[in-house]
Amino acid sequence: MPLSLQSPPCATLSASIRKGRWKTLAAGFSVTPLPAVNFSLRRSIPRILASASSSSSPASSSLEAGENNELNAVSAFSEIVPDTVVFDDFESFSLDRGYKKEISLRCKNSLPHKFPPTAATVSSALLLGICGLPDTIFRNAVDMALADSSCAGLETTESRLSCFFNKAIVNVGGDLVKLVPGRVSTEVDARLAYDTNGIIRKVHDLLRLYNEIDVPHDRLLFKIPATWQGIEAARLLESEGIQTHMTFVYSFAQAAAASQAGASVIQIFVGRLRDWARNHSGDTEIESAIKSGEDPGLALVKRSYNYIHKYGYKSKLMAAAVRNKQDLFSLLGVDYVIAPLKVLQSLKDSPAIPDDEKYSFVRKLTPETATHYHFTNKELVKWDQLSLASSMGPASVELLSAGVEGYANQAKRVEELFGKIWPPPNV
């Protein structure tokens, strides 16, 4: 049985922050690249759309019924997902603005709770944030993991820290399941990104721990980097009925291969591809989009959406790293859009004008128009490791590698931190 703690072990880290050994989170510490605390939800989750029938739902309780604003207008086409996690003593913990992103915190009273999260991701970055804050509703979840006797009794330091990590991420995930109506996506250790069997074992371990705290399988996604090994792991996990969430998708080949594997959610980072294109060249997929007058990130979402719907794959497409309203309006119809709070606020504050010359409230992506989209024979192959590797350009190779490295470094930092603060008081 886990022990009850009188003094939280994360206090050790808080003390070191005060002593200057760690930068405070309020001032920000950079991780390269630092992933988003993202939100992925099911079709059944209410949109941020006010109506008489949905006004009682957590996702829409902050909006007045019948309010005629841009947020309601765009929510008729896509699930709009707030890019935030709400703590009890801080308004938000937002983690995505590109490759180099500082963790930012807004005090509770600085922004009203207008956009409560509808679903969430639990990650190593989130664990670092929890241990770096003076007090959050998730601290006990981490403390209880570090006090777990089944982990403490393991013989090697490596196995003990890995056990603590698994327990902590599942405990926090279990708390998030109680707080959001949608699914909770659980990050799978990126150090296993090139090990199919390792990913599967890790997911099975995490799922077993979720079973122990009675979290239903249909409330969970497992977030896996879109390497070939990760895609293959997703195929095998989905065949078992385990839902997967593919991340770091930066090329059509990755999106198509993940679709063929049956991944439940495929996440494309729109803004990060745009950033890469501004400073690099030599990627034929990106250059083809630019030559056609398209933004490379938006073009990838469009092609992937049309591929999924034209050929009947079950995957849902998530557009992340959306930087502004124009991005969002260009993607209307995609399954999910992760939008920063500033974009949501701008949408909510702007009245919906049907004939607006700048923003058109027209669904850009539909299953019907997807049937007319043309794909080349090269794009319609049965994807395997060789064809995927040969089709990924320098942008997707570099961004995928950087994302995996960033996630892996964060996981390592969590275990190092747990090694410093274990054993906690009273253990």
Question: What would you note in describing this structure?
Answer:
- With 427 residues, the chain is an alpha/beta fold.
- Helix content is 43%, strand content 12%.
- The protein is built from 17 helices and 12 strands.
- Strands 2-12-11-10-9-8-7-6 form an 8-stranded parallel beta sheet. Strands 1-4 form a two-stranded antiparallel ribbon.
- Its EC number is 2.2.1.2.
Order of helices and strands: HEHEEEEEHHHHEHEHEHEHHHEHEHHHH
Give the fraction of residues assigned to helices: 40-55%
Strand arrangement, largest sheet?
Answer: 2-12-11-10-9-8-7-6
Count of discrete structural domains: 1
User: What overall geometry do the principal axes of the alpha carbons give?
Assistant: globular
| N→C terminal distance | 12 Å
CATH topology title: TIM Barrel
Tally of individual helices: 17
CATH architecture: Alpha-Beta Barrel
Average pLDDT metric: 80
| Structure summary, number of beta strands | 12
What is the fourth-level CATH superfamily?
Answer: Aldolase class I
Q: Determine the strand fraction and express it as a percent band.
A: 5-15%
Residue stretches low in confidence (pLDDT < 50, at least 5 long) are 1-9, 11-66, 86-113
Largest sheet: 8 strands, parallel
CATH top-level class = Alpha Beta
